[in-house]
Predict the structure.
Amino acid sequence: MIKNVIFDLGGVILGRDFEKYGVHERAFAFMHNYDSPFPQYWKDFDRGTISQQGVAEAIAAETGFSVSEVFPLITRVGRMFNEFPRSVELVEQLHGIGYKLYVLSNMPHEFWELMKDMDLFACFDGIVISSKEKLIKTDPAFFRLLLDRYGLDLSVTLFVDEKAYNTDAAARLG
């Protein structure tokens, strides 16, 4: 019987409405392809080992936008998160009936700082953010960090993520 549920944030509980905010989708096309891993520079941003400036330079080199155009767009992408109402409802229901809930998310520090005070996070018993730990999914050490920190038993724990390569990595751990 499942007792613990670990959620990813982006694409599972939170999303981005690119059209609403007018961000050049071409600069962030990789965020729309759920089957492919993010580019290395974004993984490093999630890991907290590259600056926003470094990411802006990498995106500018790929897209032809200038660094001065891309840098503020990255900030805007961080402010674009909105809650998926049905996911939030599920989190609240699970919390209300006693499941232990956790977050394991790849996320740049700058983005986490913009959203960490959302009311939703009161439902969670633990939150592990990649940029704070200098680890990212699919690294088994990132999963183990959450499991060890909160003493979770794999046999009663479910991991929810929209990316198959992340759920496959979790499945390899049991």
About this structure: The longest strand covers residues 100-105. Residues 67-79 form the longest helix (13 residues). DSSP finds nine helices and six strands in the chain.
